[in-house]
Specification:
Blueprint: H1 2-11, H2 23-36, H3 45-96, H4 104-111, H5 116-175, H6 190-206, H7 215-218, E1 223-224, E2 233-238, E3 241-242, E4 247-248, E5 251-254, E6 261-263, E7 268-277, E8 281-290, E9 293-305, E10 312-313, E11 318-322, E12 343-349, E13 360-361, E14 377-378
Parallel strand pairs: 1-8
Antiparallel strand pairs: 2-5, 2-14, 3-4, 5-12, 6-11, 7-8, 7-10, 8-9, 9-11, 9-12, 12-13
Helix pairs in contact: 2-6, 3-5, 4-5
Length: about 375
């Protein structure tokens, strides 16, 4: 009975929606957050435990799908490169043998022989060229067919991950009230999310954004070819992982002292800022367009913040400095999710601030990082 009641209660607050892309979507998120605060009255400890278990199960599914999607994207890029290479080879062969003038070119070449033996020799050459060209065309068709299959697989995986993410969004706001949930990743409270979301909306409205206009268009977002490292150099102290008990939805970048500069990963806009969160400390969210796709980067455990919501940043912009040591609860600070100087860096698919958790993916998909405590990366 409790499961049925719980499902009805949560579903009444959430309807299927796409990721926040305009101010109207942000207002919807804000309304959901405010209504969510009233939900705790109806939930028992058993309800919360059940929600946590379901959420962890979904996170594992999504992480697996993310890995499969990344592999498929890489396979598709390789297939597209192979197809281009074959097409170029065919074009070169056609040009070299002047096939564009018709089959008569072959006949002229064969019958222009001075002797019968030379005629046979030329005929064999033409036959080999034709066979080679036919093989190229056959390989091209094969690669194109395999590419289409990969794209269909990718589309199917994306449909599946979207459905799983939507399920998780129905539970995530409830989990924000569980202090023991996900202590390996940064997290914010409902009150913090409500406050920062109001600031974000107010900033966009002040900038003249229409309620239903895509934020990327309104903010005139500049497209990036790629994102770069958020530090001049560093090492990986903890990897991204999704576990049965907890998760670490980001990559920890260390081997820097407190106070070292933290940079934006590309050209984008500061979307949200949280100060002195109990798990994550000072945190910045920045929106980016990368190859015309929307992403959010998250920077946690900062010592201080040098930007404000609405600021346009680029790869040379210092957005804050590395914290995590003096800010740690262990050292008398306010951040219980750190025990030493490092940057928690997370990447998110789409524009997300309050509901980013299920949209995060391994930053290694975007940049090459050394193994944990095994070498440095450099900008």
């Amino acid at each position: 009975m409790r499961k049925i009641f719980l499902f009805i209660l949560i579903s009444s607050l959430f309807m299927v929606r796409v990721s926040a892309k305009n101010i109207n979507d942000l207002y919807y998120e804000l309304n959901t957050l405010e209504e969510q605060k009233e939900l705790y009255t109806y939930l028992s400890s058993d309800d919360m435990e059940e929600i946590m278990k379901t959420s962890f199960d979904i996170e594992i599914i999504v992480d697996t799908l993310n890995e499969e999607i990344n592999n498929l994207n890489n396979d598709i890029l390789l297939k597209e490169e192979s197809i281009k290479s074959i097409e170029k080879e065919i074009d070169n062969l056609l040009i070299f043998n002047q096939i564009s003038t018709g089959e008569n070119t072959y006949l002229e070449y064969i019958f222009d022989s001075d002797s019968y033996s030379e005629l046979i020799y030329r005929y064999m050459i033409v036959e080999r060229i034709t066979e080679y060209n036919n093989n190229l065309i056959s390989n091209l068709n094969k690669e194109i067919k395999e590419l289409d299959i990969k794209k269909e697989e990718l589309s199917d995986k994306r449909d599946k991950i979207d459905k799983e993410r939507e399920k998780f969004r129905e539970l995530e706001m409830v989990l924000k009230g569980v202090t023991s949930y996900n202590l390996e990743s940064i997290s914010t409270s409902l009150d913090m999310d409500i406050l920062t979301l109001k600031k974000e909306i107010a900033k966009y409205e002040k900038m003249g954004c229409d309620r239903y206009t895509d934020l990327s268009l309104c903010l005139n977002m500049e497209n990036n070819d790629s994102l770069t490292y958020p530090l001049m150099k560093g090492c990986v102290t903890k990897d991204y992982f999704v576990g049965v008990i907890n998760t670490h939805k980001g990559i920890d970048l260390g081997c820097n002292k407190e106070g070292n500069d933290v940079y934006a990963s590309g050209t984008g806009i500061v979307a949200s800022i949280v100060k002195e969160a109990s798990c994550g400390g000072n945190i910045i969210w920045i929106y980016y367009l990368v190859n015309e796709k929307e992403y959010t980067s998250i920077y946690g455990h900062l010592l201080d913040i040098k930007v404000k919501i609405g600021d346009i940043v680029n790869v040379n912009t210092v957005i804050g400095t590395v914290g995590g040591e003096s800010t740690s609860v262990l050292n008398g600070g306010y951040d219980k999710c750190t025990n030493g100087a490092h940057l928690h860096y997370a990447l998110v698919e789409g524009y997300h601030t309050s509901d980013y958790n299920i949209y995060t993916f391994n930053p290694r998909y975007m940049n090459n990082y050394p193994n944990v405590l095994n070498g440095y990366f450099y900008r």
